Amino acid sequence: MKKTVYIETTIPSYYYNQRNAPEMAALGQWTRDWWDNERLDYELVSSSFVADELSAGQHPSKGEKLALMKSVTLLPYSEEIGRIVEVYVAHKLMPNDPLGDALHLAYASFYKCDVLLSWNCRHIVNFHNTGHIQHVNGLLGLHVPALLTSFQLLQKELSE
User: Fold this and answer.
1) How many domains does the chain have?
2) End-to-end C-alpha distance for the chain, whole angstroms
3) Fewer beta carbons below 10 Å: N end or C end of the chain?
């Protein structure tokens, strides 16, 4: 059975990254490497909120980012997810933005995804938050997905 990977908004954003700074180019390359070469090894899921985030505002490659997500299964919203988000915010696990980072973690936890894939290293893929996330999800009786970047999920060896 394939492992389930929840795709957060930063993944399609970095796939189509157009920033020239070397670190931004590397994040984009690792995202494209994983998406183009390894994503078929996984069951990809997300939420309609990712499409909503990608649809908002004006940004480069907006249509392409949305098209990239067409092959990803969207998980249905549940009132329980909303309650989980409230607990996350109350426990200061994530910023007080009910349609932001807490929502992605709630989806991935509620649906028992193996991985929440993100480049949001401030709030989601952050070693310093891991223990707090495990504690709060434990209180709620929720699964804790692995919080990873595309680079961490790449299975190929890097050449020097």
Assistant:
1) 1
2) 33
3) C
Task: Please give the model's pTM, rounded to 2 decimal places.
Answer: 0.92
Of 84, 78, 77, 79, the C-alpha closest to 101 is 84
pLDDT value at position 46? 97
Token couple for 8: 């957060």
Asked whether residue 158 is domain-assigned, the answer is no
> 56-61 contacts: CB < 8 A, separation 24 or more?
59/13, 60/16, 60/18, 61/16, 61/18
Beta bridge partners of 116: 6, 147
In a domain, 160, yes or no: no
- Containing domain of residue 104, as a range? 3-153
- Secondary structure of residue 117 in the 3-state scheme: strand
pLDDT at 14 over 90: yes
CATH at 36: 3.40.50.1010
Per-residue pLDDT at 12: 96
Q: How confident is the model at residue 158 (pLDDT cuts 50, 70, 90)?
A: low
